[in-house]
Amino acid sequence: MPRPIVIASVSPKHDTFPLIVASGEFAVSVLAGDQVAAGQYFSYPGHKFKYSVEEFLDVYPSTELPVVRDAIAWLRCEVFDTKDMSDHRLFFARVVAVEPGRLKEPPLLYSSRLGWRIAGDKAREPGT
């Protein structure tokens, strides 16, 4: 069975960019609905991992890959191709391992139009 593929769009300005380029791998943390603070913190390019909030971080088992603590699940991904865009690089990666976390929690969603919310919740009340 073919392995699932993840596409990550990363700005060269983000601290994770040189780490992914150097290692050829990254981990994805599937955040739970109660992890808005972690999602917001790590989504902005100005944050440096050396100044990161340690209570948010953990390490993917048997690696040095940083992951968000208490997530729903974590995916270990190996890059097999890249494509440069105008201000980002797309990293195409195969999922090579999955670690379960809080699998029963609803996931956190984000969209630039609707913001952060828990999957299944209405983005806004009718008429708003």
Put the structure in a nutshell:
By secondary structure, the protein is mainly beta. The protein has helices spanning 16-23, 36-43; strands at residues 5-10, 25-30, 57-59, 66-68, 73-84, 89-100, 108-111, 115-118.
Flag low-confidence runs.
none
How far is the first residue's CA from the last residue's CA?
A: 45 Å
Specify the helix fraction band: 10-25%
Q: How many strands?
A: 8
Element order, helices and strands?
Answer: EHEHEEEEEE
| Silhouette | globular
Largest sheet: 4 strands, antiparallel
- Helices and strands: which structural class? mainly beta
Distinct helical segment count: 2
- Going across the biggest sheet, name each strand in turn: 1-6-5-2
Q: How big is the Rg? A: 15 Å
| Fraction in beta strands | 35-45%
Q: Roughly what is the average pLDDT, rounded to an integer?
A: 86
Topology:
Elements: E1 5-10, H1 16-23, E2 25-30, H2 36-43, E3 57-59, E4 66-68, E5 73-84, E6 89-100, E7 108-111, E8 115-118
Antiparallel strand pairs: 1-6, 2-5, 3-4, 5-6, 7-8
Structural description of this entry:
The structure is a single chain. The model has no long low-confidence stretch (mean pLDDT 86). The protein has 128 residues and is mainly β. The protein starts with a strand and ends in a 10-residue tail after the last strand. The strands form 3 sheets. The chain has a 4-stranded antiparallel beta sheet with strand order 1-6-5-2, with helices on one face. Helix content is 12%, strand content 39%. The protein is globular, with a radius of gyration of 15 Å. It contains 2 helices and 8 strands; from the N terminus they run βαβαββββββ.
